[in-house]
Amino acid sequence: MVILVVVMLFCLINQPMCIDPKAAPTDFSSLPDFSEWPSDTQLPRQLVRQYRGFSGLDIDDRYFFIRVLGSGREGTVSLYQDMNTGASVAIKAFHTKYRNPVPARILEALKAEDVNHWPTEIPATLLLAGSTLWNDDRSSFPERGHEVSSLDMLPALDYFLVRESPRHPASLTWHLATPYLGRGTLTDLAMSLEVENQTPNDLDLALRPNLHRLLGSLARMHGIGVCHNDIKPDNIFFENNHWLLGDLVRERKKLSESMA
What we know:
The protein is α+β, with helices and mostly antiparallel strands and about 260 residues long. The protein has six helices and 13 strands. About 25% of the residues lie in helices and about 25% in strands. A hairpin with a 5-residue loop joins strand 4 and strand 5 (about 90-95).
């Protein structure tokens, strides 16, 4: 059964990658409404925050650190509880060199902070996946009710800089908060299917519509001139019967028809 899932995803995984140099910024200027971006609803109330608490990893009084979920080349993802909403969120702390210039509107909001670049994943998520920034004080948020964009990607809930230490005011790190989908990725789904008594036909009926929607999202992304550049089961999340593409850190301008 795992083999069936892998075969279904072969056309996604076995694609040539973009050939842009990895250090180059990604140009999003061809996207619709880019000239008016970011909008008022995509600006957090507070862009610079502080690590606090007993763990030293709580973020202001807003996000309570629970545990590290995983770490990769671009950053570390941790599970937090949003103290305003009670919901679980995944927050990625980026620790690689930032390659995209920060938009003028955010630079104005940052004022005196010496920050000129940010990770590609933040603008890629805001522009392509959309956002439901939690700038209000809602006491609850539906566990299964996160906004999902037409591109079937994991949306942004919040983004900000964290000052790691008041003694080192220049120690600022970009963070991105997204919904925490506890069921995991397609890798987890494939492992769970090993213990379920389903025929290949049953699996095909269940999984093929999701694969078609995902391919449609990639086609629409390519249609606006960008590619994901890192398609693999670990970057495809699922919630109930819906697949969401995440980890947009390698988002690139599309240079040829073979790019995924």
